[in-house]
Specification:
D-Amino Acid Oxidase, Chain A, domain 2; 3 domains; seven-stranded mixed sheet; alpha+beta; FAD/NAD(P)-binding domain; single chain; eight-stranded mixed sheet
Length: about 500
């Protein structure tokens, strides 16, 4: 019977990143998908700064940035005029190596991940369908339908459901998927166009007429349009063509559509699964949570799920942790998914709600308040951290402990860059490591060396102060580059206690 450490159902970005991370660490995986080929339409576009930081660990960031388009600013339009401009490049300049929104269409994205996975000897098994599974104490027995129609039994230590909103894995677990569906019908179109919004930036129309967002694509004169269909035509989406959707918002943005390359309609849902783990089976990405497209968070959140789970599965499979480490996956990711659904729901409702009060808020108050808020550094930073997912943290959760400076256990490691040093360079090591900013004691150096735990020591600088780090403190980093322990005294006893209390060993 074919056996793997982890069987991954679904070969979208979430499943592919999970397979890639695990394969790089020597974990045997199978990844299968019921479709006959990778997607050929762009679908999800936005790659956030935090995803690029995590991709840097996998040596993917340069390829994504080089193959896509950097969006330096977002523009809000009201009554056919630009009303506010938010410069992303300057807001995030000191926070991340990637102070922009990266546009990298999902078809390109998946092809890159497939290519990298193939380089590690793993092929996506296409036209292969999950029929059912049974969980045991140490394995999961799985029944598959193969491309030729025959059936196959296989087993794995763990099963990962990355198979989308209609997840077969979630249904097989009988996990509820509470939430709802927004009343608006959305359309998406990839177009060739001209006009003011085709300047390489993001443009959003907030008029009462229709919601419309224009996302630039790589190349000249190419864009993705996302808009609403508000009238009776929404009752029969299967009959709609681009010519049928309202042109009011397009006219307000002074956009001339020259050619439509792709057009589709869809409904937007907001749901979070009741459980992300049952025994040896896990839910990730859209199988676990779906939400509005506000802020371009969906695909990025699924990728975050994959990286969070990957290092934990690796720890357990390599005997470096007890199985209960895997319970921290639903604790950490469900909390974020629920916050995200609530936040994007509020933004989505604001942008698309009907009625005179909603129109007043969008067309009169928002264009005035947003630029004024953006004038304050803290407000700009909060906005960028939220949308880019740099602000995501696991504070007050089982794997997070301590505080040193303004950095707490569970935080993303702050980025510190000088002419000589970039502290994110060390994060290409896909394992535990210790950072000290200032001086490290001989005791700490010897303790880390004895355990083959990488120790990175960076000279103290003004950049460290600005990042909120504490001088000479110890920061223990998880394999996904979040701070596990922040210890101001740099005590080796504190690190020893951290690992022993959680049944962990560094690798």
């Amino acid at each position: 019977m074919p056996h793997s450490d982890v069987l991954i159902i679904g070969a979208g970005p979430t499943g592919l990143v999970l397979a890639l991370w695990l394969s790089k660490l020597g974990i045997s995986v199978r990844i299968l998908d019921r479709t006959s080929a990778a997607g050929t339409t762009s679908r999800a576009l936005a790659v956030q700064a935090r995803t690029l930081e995590l991709y840097r660990q996998l040596d993917l960031a340069d390829a994504v940035v080089g193959g896509g388009h950097q969006v330096p600013a977002a523009n809000l339009w009201v009554k056919a005029e630009p009303a506010a401009r938010l410069p992303l490049d300057s807001i995030g300049a000191n926070l991340t190596p990637y102070p922009f929104l990266e546009i990298y269409p999902q078809d390109q994205h998946e092809n890159l991940l497939i290519e990298r996975l193939r380089g590690l000897g793993v092929e996506v098994e296409r036209s292969t369908e999950l029929l059912g599974f049974t969980q045991h104490d140490t394995t999961v027995s799985v029944r598959l339908r193969l491309p030729d129609g025959s059936e196959q039994d296989c087993e794995a230590h763990y099963l990962a459901g990355c198979d989308g909103a209609h997840s077969t894995v979630r249904n097989g677990l009988h996990v509820d998927f509470p939430g709802g569906t927004y009343q608006q019908l959305f359309y998406v179109a990839d177009v060739d166009a001209s006009g003011p919004p085709m300047n390489g930036e993001l443009h959003v129309d907030l008029d009462e007429a229709d919601f419309l967002a224009v996302f630039p694509l790589a190349g000249t004169g190419r864009a993705r349009l996302i808009g609403t269909v508000r009238d009776a035509r929404a009752e029969h989406p299967e009959q709609l063509r681009f010519e049928d959707v309202s042109q009011r918002a397009i006219e307000h943005l002074q956009l001339q559509v020259l050619k439509v390359n792709w057009f589709s309609t869809y409904r937007v849902h907001h749901r979070v699964a009741g459980h992300f783990r049952q025994q040896r089976a896990f839910l990730l990405g859209d199988a676990a949570h779906v939400h509005s497209p506000a802020g371009g968070q969906g695909m990025n959140t699924g990728i975050g799920d994959a990286i969070n789970l990957a290092w934990k599965l690796c720890s357990v499979l390599k005997g470096k942790a007890h199985d209960d480490l895997l319970d921290s996956y639903p604790v950490e990711r469900m909390a974020f998914a629920r916050r995200l659904v609530a936040t994007t729901d509020q933004v989505f409702t604001f942008a698309t709600a009907d009625g005179s009060i909603a129109n007043l808020l969008r067309t009169r108050l928002a264009p005035v308040l947003i630029p004024r808020m953006a004038a304050f550094a803290k407000a700009r930073s909060l906005l960028f951290r939220t949308v880019s997912q740099l602000g995501l943290n696991y504070r007050l959760m089982p794997l997070s402990f301590g505080s040193a400076g303004h950095v707490q256990g569970g935080d993303r490691l702050p980025w510190v860059v000088t002419q000589e040093h970039d502290n994110f360079g060390a994060l290409s090591h896909l394992g535990w490591q210790v950072h000290v900013y200032g001086l490290a004691s001989k005791e700490l150096s010897a303790w880390c060396a004895a355990r083959q735990l990488p120790l990175q020591v960076y000279p103290w600088s003004a950049a460290c102060t600005a990042a909120g780090l504490a001088r000479n403190a110890l920061y223990l980093l998880r394999p996904d580059s979040y701070v596990a322990l922040a210890e101001p005294s740099a005590s080796t006893a504190a690190v020893e206690r951290y690992f022993s209390e959680r049944g962990l060993r560094p690798w």
